[in-house]
Amino acid sequence: MQNLRIGIVGCGGMSLSHTLAMTRLTGVSVAAVAEPKKANRDRYIRFSTRDIERRMATDRSFRKAVEKARKLTADCVQYTRYERMLEREPLDAVLILTPHTLHHGQILDALEAGLHVLVEKPMVCTTRHAEDVVTAARKSGKVVGVAYQRHFEPDYLYMREAAQSGKLGRLEYISLVLYQNWYSPTKGTWRRSPKWAGGGQLLDSGSHVIDAILWVSGLKARRVFATMRRFDARVDVDSALIIEFANGAIGQVTIVGKTIMPFSEELVITGAAGVLQYRQGCLYHYDVGGKKTTPEVVRRSKSTPVVNFVDAIRGRAPVGAPPECGLAAARVTDAAFRSAKRGCFVNV
User: Beta strand 238-245 with 144-146: parallel, antiparallel or unpaired?
Assistant: First the structure.
């Protein structure tokens, strides 16, 4: 496939990020965009925000990437409805970057149109919808990926290999804590709307950490207990989950969305023969004697969801985060929402 024609559904902030990542690729063009809001379409075509302009003024390499991105977006056809874009444009693939509750229908429509699909997290909002996507993806034979960037980060790849190869022994306890000021920036946005978001932070940035704990460990969740707090929002903001795994291990996921603390993420994997601790970009290994070392992690050229997506379409790499990952995350979040409502453990 010489030139890959990509359509973008949804011109929010992630459309800018993924297009910047596309500047690393050759033989790729953004042929069309579909976005109901003219202001969002205009911003995407101009490829300009205050943050972009500010960074361009001091970062030469970033400025070059933006210049390439502007060439990618300069001639794309604009639509207000994605259905018309799918009908009229000879596309090869689409990026779905819309509010969460729209993903399910848009993924199925794109697959029906014979296109490869990369979708932002969460893949969908319910287990039933996730099962639909997995089934449709398998029947289509097309590449379907979920934009979970941790699947391409060297530290996470190292932890996954160590956890699943037996280097840590039998896994016994896994803890992931996320602190993020999610509450304030989402006021007045679709992310606070049950209609468009399907939930709160657990389905939003929380989807990344639910996926991470499952993907890194390779364990299957058996049941979940959860408690959540909304404050004055209509959706969950803070969440605390206990996950029991099929092998007997226990998992803990804590998501704090109302905080003045800067972004912080910590993952600890405890095994019978060792422990890995990842915190704020630093990775440590503790052996059975308690000795702490810093593992040598291969700092290969880092891929991204969209780079991997294109490589997978061209047969150069497997899909980094297939729809089965989205299904696994949906099963846990579904169980968490039911548990928080009932006040008891819920089977996954």
Answer: unpaired
Are 232 and 130 found together in one domain? no
Rounded CA separation 260/117 (Å): 36
Per-residue pLDDT at 298? 74
Q: Answer yes or no: do 294 and 183 share one domain.
A: yes
β partners of residue 216: none
The pTM of the whole model exceeds 0.90: yes
Domain of residue 182, residue span? 150-300+329-347
Q: How do 93-96 and 221-229 pair as beta strands? A: unpaired
Asked whether the beta carbons of 85 and 115 are under 8 A apart, the reply is no
pLDDT grade for 27, boundaries at 50, 70 and 90:
very high
Chain centroid, CA 285 distance in Å: 26
- Between strands 346-347 and 221-229, the pairing is antiparallel
How far is the C-alpha of 2 from the C-alpha of 264, rounded, in Å? 42
Q: What is the CATH classification number for the domain harbouring 262?
A: 3.30.360.10
Asked if residue 301 has pLDDT above 80, the reply is: no
Q: What is the CATH number of the domain that holds 8?
A: 3.40.50.720
285 and 166 assigned to the same domain: yes
Q: Please report, to the nearest 10 degrees, the dihedral formed by the alpha carbons of residues 119, 59, 5, 1 taken in order.
A: -100
Cβ partners under 8 Å of residue 172, min gap 6: 248, 249, 250, 270, 271, 272
Tens digit of each residue's pLDDT (9 = 90 or more) over 146-201: 999 999 999 999 999 999 999 999 999 999 999 999 999 999 999 999 999 999 99
156 in the same domain as 144: no
pLDDT at residue 300 in the model: 67
70 contacts 62 by C-beta, under 8 angstroms: no
